[in-house]
Amino acid sequence: MRGLLLVLSGPSGAGKGTVCRVLRQRLPHLGYSVSATTRPPRPGEKDGENYFFLKREEFLALLEEGAFLEWAEVYGNLYGTPRRPVEEALAGGQDIILEIDTQGAAQVKKHYPDGVFIFVIPPTFKELEERIRRRGTETPEVIATRLGWVENELQQMDLYDYVVVNDVVESAVAKIEAIITAEKCRTARFKAYWQQPFWHKEARSGEPPVHR
Ligand code: 5GP
Q1: What are 163-200's pLDDT values in tens digits?
Q2: Is the distance from CB of 81 to CB of 35 less than 8 angstroms?
Q3: Rounded-to-integer distance, Cα 196 and Cα 96, Å
């Protein structure tokens, strides 16, 4: 069975990072795409785990080689999804999640229209603002930029198949698990096997179906 490509976006302060972390704890087989970035690491962030932290020249060289599935400039820094791990996971039947911004999601949608696009939002505007301020790892200038960008991000909601309100993390995660379950039951994934003639080799083999 081909893996599901999940794309998670949402405005800064929506709590995507936390939702993603808890989701991965609950679904240990879910692959996670580690992005490359030119942003400096925040305290506690590890290279190769949270991001691949690159110099701008390194990032641009990889971009030139076509190493990124998508890329975008966010708050003055470059971010990109390494192409190969995503392609390998999907071909190997592993589900994989990308936590990327809306510009990147639009590029992914062109290549993978079958991807599952999920937009995470906080319960209210006020909560959104408080979460961005509370994060505290950023300077006031960075916070102001992020608040400005949030409005723009919210306009991109139409690109997504689902919106998940992140009020209580556990319930946001439960909704995403439900989305994954439903997506795996889509008719399109079953047609190739179940609509082949009875005499076909694959149907007669007794092997469990390969649901594409
Ligand atoms: P942060 O610097 O706070 O970790 O991330 C800033 C923004 O960049 C977030 O909206 C995050 O989802 C987005 N981002 C992280 N990695 C990627 C990526 O590989 N591609 C794109 N397009 N956006 C990314």
Answers
A1: 999 999 999 999 999 999 999 999 998 888 888 887 77
A2: yes
A3: 29
- Does any ligand 1 atom lie closer than 6 A to the CB of residue 86? no
User: From the CB of 8, is ligand 1 less than 6 Å away?
Assistant: no
| H/E run at residue 127 | helix 125-135
Superfamily of domain 5-33+95-205: P-loop containing nucleotide triphosphate hydrolases (3.40.50.300)
Q: Check the CA dihedral 192-82-48-153 and report its sign.
A: negative
Owner of token pair 């808890």: 22
Domain borders along the chain are 5-33+95-205
Nearest atom (ligand 1) to Cα of 9: 12
Q: What is the pTM (predicted TM-score) of this model?
A: 0.91
Tens digit of each residue's pLDDT (9 = 90 or more) over 88-118? 999 999 999 999 999 999 999 999 999 999 9
Is residue 80 exposed (0-12), middle (13-18) or buried (19+ Cβ within 10 Å)?
Answer: buried
- With a 6 Å cutoff on the Cβ, whether 116 touches ligand 1 is no
Distance 130 CA to ligand 1 centre (A): 20
The owner of tokens 């909704």 is: 175
